[in-house]
Amino acid sequence: MSRSIQAYFPTENEAEAVKTLLQTYETQTLEVSALDGGNGYGADGVPLIVPFAASNMTGTSGTGMFNGVGAVNDYDKSIDNMRYVLSAKVKDEDYETIVDVIHDNKGKILQ
Fold first, then answer.
1. pLDDT digit of tens for each residue in the chain (111 aa)?
2. Distance between CA atoms of 103 and 109, rounded to whole angstroms?
3. I need a labelling partner for 83 at 20 to 30 A (CA). Which of 35, 67, 76, 97 fits?
């Protein structure tokens, strides 16, 4: 199984550096993108939310909104200076290690 993850970074160089580090793991759709508003909000002031197709532990699936780790929460001011997002699908067994790599390199994962 794999899990989706989104990590926010203050600079493109920091996001790209983590992307390079994560290439040593088995990942899918590993990419870095700029945030339009630079603070978790789009240019129009609306919070950035990524739609996804979800599957829960019971095997049912559907669509929802996702912030990389769990359900969308209220705007988190700790991402005010975050300008880039790294998105990936990672293997379940690598998830905690990858979260540590992200945190050790100035990345923030909303929970």
1. 899 999 999 999 999 999 999 999 999 889 999 987 545 554 444 455 544 443 333 344 444 444 444 444 444 566 678 899 999 999 999 999 999 999 999 999 986
2. 8
3. 97
CA distance to 2, 21, 28, 59, 84, per residue, from 92 (Å):
5, 17, 12, 16, 24
β partners of residue 3: 90
* Amino acid at site 23: Q
- Burial (CB count within 10 angstroms: exposed 0-12, middle 13-18, buried 19+), residue 54: middle
Structure token digits, residue 6: 């989104």
Secondary structure, 3-state, 29-68: EEEEEECCCCCCECCCCCECCEEEEEECCCCCEEEEEECC
